[in-house]
TrEMBL record, chains A, B:
Matches recorded under InterPro entries: HTH_LacI, LacI/GalR-like_sensor, Lambda_DNA-bd_dom_sf, Peripla_BP_I
Taxonomic placement: Bacteria, Bacillati, Actinomycetota, Actinomycetes, Micromonosporales
Keywords: DNA-binding, Transcription, Transcription regulation
MF-aspect GO terms: DNA-binding transcription factor activity; transcription cis-regulatory region binding
Domain called HTH lacI-type: residue spans: 1-53
Record Pfam families: LacI (PF00356), Peripla_BP_3 (PF13377)
PANTHER family assigned to the protein according to its UniProt record, in alphabetical order: LACI-RELATED TRANSCRIPTIONAL REPRESSOR, LACTOSE OPERON REPRESSOR
Protein name, per record: LacI family transcriptional regulator
Domain of life of the native organism: Bacteria
Amino acid sequence: MADVAKLAGVSSQTVSRVANGQAGVVESTREQVLAAMRELGYRPNSAARSLRYGRFNTLGVILFGLSSTGNSRTVEAIATHAAAEGYAITLIPVGAPTQDNVLGAFTRMGELAVDGVIVIIEVHLLDAATPALPPGVHVVVVDSDAGERYPVVDTDQADGARQAVRHLLELGHPTVWHIAGPAESYSAERRALAWRTVLEEAGRPVPPVGRGDWSAESGYRAGLELPPACTAVFVANDQMALGVLRALNEQGRRVPADVSVVGFDDIADASSYLPPLTTVHQDFAEVGRRCVEALLEQISAGPGGPGTDLVPTHLVVRGSTAPYRGGAAP
Amino acid sequence: MADVAKLAGVSSQTVSRVANGQAGVVESTREQVLAAMRELGYRPNSAARSLRYGRFNTLGVILFGLSSTGNSRTVEAIATHAAAEGYAITLIPVGAPTQDNVLGAFTRMGELAVDGVIVIIEVHLLDAATPALPPGVHVVVVDSDAGERYPVVDTDQADGARQAVRHLLELGHPTVWHIAGPAESYSAERRALAWRTVLEEAGRPVPPVGRGDWSAESGYRAGLELPPACTAVFVANDQMALGVLRALNEQGRRVPADVSVVGFDDIADASSYLPPLTTVHQDFAEVGRRCVEALLEQISAGPGGPGTDLVPTHLVVRGSTAPYRGGAAP
DNA sequence: GTCGGAAATGTTTGCGTAAACATGTGTGCC
DNA sequence: GGCACACATGTTTACGCAAACATTTCCGAC
């Protein structure tokens, strides 16, 4: 900066004024400074700026991994909206979901230059970790039941699951089976709970729950366990539903003629499954947007209270569901 | 830091020494300082550190989006390995692939506190943009033909495509059709070129190329165009292959009995397609790892020359390919 | 012409850290 | 006992920037 000032024949303060587009610099001077900047290839040093302002214009994101479609789409939306607000994103992935790893990630984040943190992680691992964050750092949590302690943004999992199960009941199926995600996952539990509640409210029998780990492969294995009596199944995500379709296909059971299948997420591929999957649409981009919004609000206006902001879902009916035809196999 | 020093009854310099684990501090003093740090919840300010050192310990990543499986897995690997080396990741997504957007991303990145940049973007958009980066910032490029000007890390696209096409020819198919990715994509072009070359070398006719945009939906549309004479098709990625499977299924053509299909990427879901997809396995994690390695090498040892580092691929044979049976439909 | 005041520009200062240099403190050796 | 030297700790300074305050310049009104 000093070099630019010297070359332009002005003080460094004037350079600073030009760099920040402040008023009070006469046109001719501004021109000269800009020319000098170009000539020397001057870039403002963001570290010095941060030091001066006490702000970093950076948001941290802590998550388990980008491998799930939901996470990666949420992160993408976060990055996009943060960029639009002049913020950069710093990513810290946590390897295995252990207390130690999570704590380590928060500690690292605490040492990093971030103004706020978005946490995409199960809450039970979170409690021990947040104290590792410095006091000034704000937090928004995605996809967990931390609503009593932190601001939370989440998809309306329960309502989505309700829509799925009701759709199947309305088609006449006597009851609906469920293949859930991993027990540690809060979304998985909420979807399972909503499924159970709808069945109970409708006075239908509640079949035993199948389990997967969100992967198509695990859905395939769980699908093989589905008994012949099953005519309708609500699967906790689209990828497991893909596995279920394969399992049913291998067993010679036709979808949707013999068995109706509903997924959750509405990933891009779901419309190309065999048959195209009826599923619950989840608006990941909106979740990401609201996270950034809530966090920036906190940063500028001070900590908002806890509470949960739910993004609505809706059912997308495609070819994998059909009316009940009175029996399992024809 | 001054507060800690006061509380511990030492100078700030001693605090600094303790914070950085430097020698020359007697045990009792160190204890006192550590205690004071804990009491005050002291955190070193990374902005000041960066200012002092001229290093940020941050790597930038510029990409189009996280929606493709490949990108998100590569980014995940980059983040993981960078974290292991004590570096954080700053993400800048580029919306639409226009010259302006790319330039904007590079400009923003130039103003950000990064020591190096990993670019996951088509090269023809890259040329106009890199000058926007400050001189001291190192660059590694993924998935492009920039090998003559930048260090490039990439999957061995050509070899993967060759393996796919040869596999189909070895099964006895007279020739192999191809559904390519978008023409702007360099990987798409390389896969298409390798496909054409193998056919020409084998003296087989080269059918017209189908086109998609990587999405399952576009694969479906391209799949509907496949003529009855087609008995083998190499699709440029797994998701489009999923669409092709659906198109063939709708037309009553069985896979692999009537038509053999090979994909590219080996995404997690591919083994659960109907039928499980034969595809070219791509090691995204390794690509990410090598990127970080190359970039850190540059940062510590000065700019390495251009050149391309190819990560090998291998064919995974599953259920979507079968020997040629002498005719298109039985 | 002189004076007031607004606008343009310059100077000083401090953000938190750590290197470089300066000072103190004790130890062992002759 | 005095001296040198190693080691622990303190003081000064600079990193790049911009707010706060200081100075200069120029204009119009009287």
